[in-house]
Amino acid sequence: AQTVTQSQPEMSVQEAETVTLSCTYDTSESDYYLFWYKQPPSRQMILVIRQEAYKQQNATENRFSVNFQKAAKSFSLKISDSQLGDAAMYFCAQDSNYQLIWGAGTKLIIKP
Amino acid sequence: EAGVVQSPRYKIIEKKQPVAFWCNPISGHNTLYWYRQNLGQGPELLIRYENEEAVDDSQLPKDRFSAERLKGVDSTLKIQPAELGDSAVYLCASSLGLAGGRTIQETQYFGPGTRLLVL
Fold first, then answer.
1. Residues in CB range of B19: below 8 A, 6 or more apart
2. Is the pLDDT confidence value at B101 over 70?
3. Hey, what domains does chain B have and what are their CATH numbers?
4. Nearest chain A Cα to B104, which residue?
């Protein structure tokens, strides 16, 4: 079965610092997509960034970037210049057979 | 552009009672998803619609859960009767759903969810 693992239940970072959230996945597919979603306490799930597996270049979206290691099946999210508004649950997900396989999430705490 | 709308935001019911959740996807989005999210976990897909057709309901507990998407727009998810273990957040999401393509590669846009508490 396909699995997505987020090994950090909780992470904290000082405001303006950089933090990296880890994600590993297990798939036998060669063509797939990976996503990071953010879910603030209000519960609205928001897409942060996505990566297409066939692209070697790491995706970036402003302060958010990924380190995609296809051979290692690793997909970490780096948040630069952390802001208070970044505090949320972060979920890693991989598409498989027309559905998303989700990790358990990492709670990100921003210290002012 | 309006996002995915869900109602109600909160619902408290006693076990064995029925409950229904409503979702209005983003205009023009053909694919609609219902997820259940338990506390501290990622979402779990319940059902996926392509227009009005339920193309994946393999994880929907059909003995008590039902869903419909009339006219391929709004959708309703129903639980009857509700059990204590159904307490969770029910999320609706939608995506464009390109005809003939892999819909999952498109971004899924989520609604705010409905928090259900069964007493």
1. B11, B13, B78, B79, B80, B82, B116
2. no
3. 5-98+109-118 (2.60.40.10)
4. A98
Query: What are B18-65's pLDDT values in tens digits?
Result: 999 999 999 989 899 999 999 888 899 999 998 899 988 989 999 999
CATH number of the domain bearing residue A103:
2.60.40.10
3-state secondary structure of B14: coil
Phi/psi of residue A84, nearest 5 degrees: -55, -35
The whole domain housing A55 covers 3-111
Beta carbons of B45 and A99 less than 8 Å apart: yes
CB distance B64 to B3 below 8 Å: no
Kindly determine whether residue B105 and residue A33, on different chains, have CB atoms separated by under 8 Å: yes
Which residues of chain B have a CB within 8 Å of the CB of A102? 41-44
Chain B partners of A52 at a C-beta cutoff of 8 Å?
A: 105
